[in-house]
Amino acid sequence: MPPMPEAVFTIRRFAAVALGAALSLLSIDASAAGEGRTTKAGAAPESVGPGPLPAALAGEYALQAGKLDDAARWYLDAARAAEGDAVLAERATRIALLARNQAFADQALALWRQRAGRSLGMRNAEATLALQRKDETAARRELRNLLLGRGEGLKSEKDGWRYALLAMDAGSGDPALIGRLLAALVDDIPQELPAWLAFGEFAQQVQRQDIAAKIIGRVLQYYPNEPGVSLLHANQLRRSGKEAQARKILDRMSAAAILLPDVAYGLAREYGAMGDYAAAAAVLARGPQNDNTYILRASYLAQADDKAGVAAVYEELKRESASPNPARRLLLGQVAEFIERQDDALDWYASVPGGPQRWQARLRTAPVLHKLGRVDEAHAHIRAIQADATASDETRRDAYLLQADLYKNDNRPDDELATLDRGLAAFPDESQLLYARALMWERRDDIPRAEADLRRILALDADDVNALNALGYTLADRTDRYQEALELIARAYAAEPDNAAIIDSYGWVLYRLGRTEEALVELLRAFTKQKDAEIAAHVAEVLWVLGRKDEAVNYFVEARRIDPESRSLKRALDKTGAVLPPLPDKAGA
């Protein structure tokens, strides 16, 4: 996806500006907020005085409380009170779109149109609102105007297509609608390489390989020798099941005399996706080497179970490191560890002379000792780091996290808990330690204690997005406190509206609340952004409940392909009783 243009404000930026302005006003005249009172943290005032800024402050309180509809209402009130203020009207529009409150978005957008000339951002909002309403005719019109650079505010083709793509991404929770729009608009995509590549990748994300093929076929006419186009073509063929054709393109590219680094990495990625890890490593072996190429080559060869190949990379790396600096010594230790030359790894880690790499090497020594069966020595080593006053607080904290992880992997839950408790005694209120302990409690099905640790993080930092999402998802998934979960997740969603994990959580809590159709839109959008087993299982369960069982099975199968051991997949299969087709015979695959 192309980066969001600067003109398209994020909700977080809206909120920060509005809050700053409101607090500025309140510092001048504390009575400007009227008689309204806040009865609990994050709750919006029951009433506000006249003027736009108190209403904007109330909207910010609602946003912080995860009450998106209330936030949209307050910001709309603020925009109405601020006569002629186009910026506040734009903010109100964006927040209403985030809340998917079409009525408020329509009213805020009308104010924006009255107060400002038509702009790319405004047309993006118009297209997004049309997509939320599933008004295919209006959406197609606005998107085409953006693509063709038609109308006031559209300076050139180069400006509009990014905004069109952003709007389509926002509507990607309805793959059928987006697919029809892509098919209708494919001939209007500007004839420039970045636009073609971006739309080709987006078509693949929404699983419209037919449209991706058409886009790629068109762009090959204009850029037949562009490596990025060839890689996209190979990717499209592979996803369409035409692996032999994809391989021909990759082999032709890899035969080139000189490969630019970005092209080499792209080729290796495609070979790796096909399972040809040896070819991926061979591509990276050509040309100048650096730490990244060495570690990637070793990784690909390890996936190919080519221990001799990984050992050869290790020997090459040693030859090229006659006088290795600390970073190279650390890398040599990591590669030695990777190829299970644990004694060599210990020697390399011990030889790192100083600096930040020294502490990384000391931390890595503990799991190496553990792998060698020297378990007591490993724990003594890591306790020495925890007690070392010369180590940074971050290093000492990481030592507690690492030791807890070793105990977890050894199925020693009491020792895992004791380690995290010791870490929190040394570093009270350290969020990563609290987060690790919360996840441990959740694995033990002790939801009250998990909640307590996550709430402790939020008491220290009310805007910690990871804690908001984790607590909201835990309440949605493991309790019946769905409204409370919704407000927590909505706060995370307002801060990071394009985060696939948060979108998934948001969809999941909507499903728990019985808002099944709305949930499916969010979950499908999350899956277009991240092909994850948990998200796929969520999509599948919702489709099953909606009676779309054939589609559900397809998503269950995809979740199993990504991660057969997914806990979410197992729970969804148990709940629905869905029966999946047997796994393919690897010998005959």
UniProtKB/TrEMBL annotation:
Source organism per UniProt: Lysobacter brunescens
PANTHER family recorded: BLL7664 PROTEIN, CELL DIVISION CYCLE 16,23,27
Start-end of each TPR repeat: 533-566
This protein's UniProt keywords: Signal, TPR repeat
PROSITE patterns, A to Z: TPR (PS50005)
Protein name: Tetratricopeptide repeat protein
Signal peptide: 1-32
